[in-house]
Amino acid sequence: MENFSLIKKTQIFDGVEENDVQAMAHCFRIRFRNYNKNNVISPQGAPLEDVILLLKGSANIENMDATGSVSVLMNIKAGQCYGLVEACHGDECYSSSLIASENCLVMLIAKHRLINPCENKCPRHLTVIKNIMHSLASRGMYFMDKINHLTKKKIREKVLSYLKSQSIRQNSTYFDIPYNKTELAEYLAVDRSALSSELSKMKAEGIIDFDKKHYHIKRDLDSI
Amino acid sequence: MENFSLIKKTQIFDGVEENDVQAMAHCFRIRFRNYNKNNVISPQGAPLEDVILLLKGSANIENMDATGSVSVLMNIKAGQCYGLVEACHGDECYSSSLIASENCLVMLIAKHRLINPCENKCPRHLTVIKNIMHSLASRGMYFMDKINHLTKKKIREKVLSYLKSQSIRQNSTYFDIPYNKTELAEYLAVDRSALSSELSKMKAEGIIDFDKKHYHIKRDLDSI
DNA sequence: TAAATAGTGTTGTTTTTACAACAAAAAGAG
DNA sequence: CTCTTTTTGTTGTAAAAACAACACTATTTA
């Protein structure tokens, strides 16, 4: 099946052979689903029975608070999981919603099977467990990074902190981000129009350039 | 040795028998250190060779940025680890500093031994690995919670979000927090004097009461 | 116990942000 | 291609926060 070649490239099945994945498929109760752009893959507060593994596309993890205001926690890409942190923590519900930001193919994995591997000695279970560990740690690092952006007091500092981090991650001063301006404002927890005017100012000052989701940091990273 | 009774109560050695911990001690290259209140347990940017397990006391994880402004990432208590996320992610340096907020006893564990357990089949290694997984997941949940606080736009919303979360965690509307006012401001990334006046207003309005590190939420949690 | 230090609350001023409203541009649907 | 919807940039105003300075209290330390 074509999907299995995608599975091999995911974080949690890294280093697992395709026939081993096939063997685990039944045990993990895997199922596949397709979603169109902007559709809800998983709604906030839904019971958490599966870990959702993104095989194609990308999606935003979003939160809506009691007052109805929306924030974007992060964007996940093909190969990454949604709900793994909650599943390993023992939560009963998804604490956020997952919204397709492109057309998506996802794989559902029964969470209790994934995090409590059966007791046979096959080494692929250990591989998956190690991959899950690494995946959880990466998510933790990602959150610390985001907390660093949010900790900055001024909008300009928040944006530059985020853009610098993206620049380092993508190893270039030219890079794409997964958010449009509205989503970037929701990600950085600032007002959209204030963000827009701050970006315009920085463009006018020659600090950055941008077009749609493409950005360019023109100054030395250390000087800003 | 007296210390081993403390180790049994930590997150990552939960469910491991004392004699098993003794057996692992050599393999993990464990060492003990004492620190007085306000001393630096680990400085920002130090090479990361050990995971630091707090056995007694509590400590703040702090970040200082290029401009010299300090933020408090979180406070960890006896039983919790510092540096586990970075170690499992494969980082070479601590990305933050660890400052004793009380007198502390810590245990150092060689990180490569902890996260790459030797290949014998003893079940306690699997137990430790599972505990590490759970510990990483808890840290992830904690960070998501903190991101929710920081995502709020107004100081009052940030404080109430944090206090509500503490109230739920401690299962009472009367609770202690690990921060004084200065540290709370550094934790919530707001100005100390602005925080102080906002707290005073909320006290005057009868929403909360507080004294030192002790707080009381007087209104229904859902209504605020 | 006295002196020094650290923590807290208050206030006024300046800076920054949120908010609201609108126009223009771009993207998507039929 | 045209109409509709979404996204983006701009501006002015009101609200909120940062900042700075100071007084007072609590806590350490000598």
Roughly what fraction of the amino acids of chain A lie in strands?
Answer: 15-25%
Per CATH, the superfamily of the largest domain in chain A is: Jelly Rolls
- Kindly identify the CATH topology of the largest domain in chain A: Jelly Rolls
Question: Could you tell me which chain pair has the largest interface and how many residues each side has?
Answer: A-B, 37 and 37 residues
Integer-rounded radius of gyration of chain A: 19 Å
CATH architecture of the largest domain in chain A: Sandwich
Secondary-structure content class of chain A: alpha+beta
Spatial separation of the terminal alpha carbons of chain A: 49 Å
Query: How many alpha or pi helices of chain A?
Result: 8
Low-confidence stretches of chain A: none
Sheet bearing the most strands of chain A, described? 4 strands, antiparallel
Task: Give a quick summary of the entry.
By secondary structure, the first copy, chain A, is α+β, with helices and mostly antiparallel strands. Chain A has helices at residues 3-7, 18-28, 84-89, 111-115, 123-151, 155-170, 181-188, 192-204; strands at residues 31-35, 40-42, 50-56, 58-64, 70-77, 81-82, 97-100, 104-110, 174-176, 208-211, 214-217.
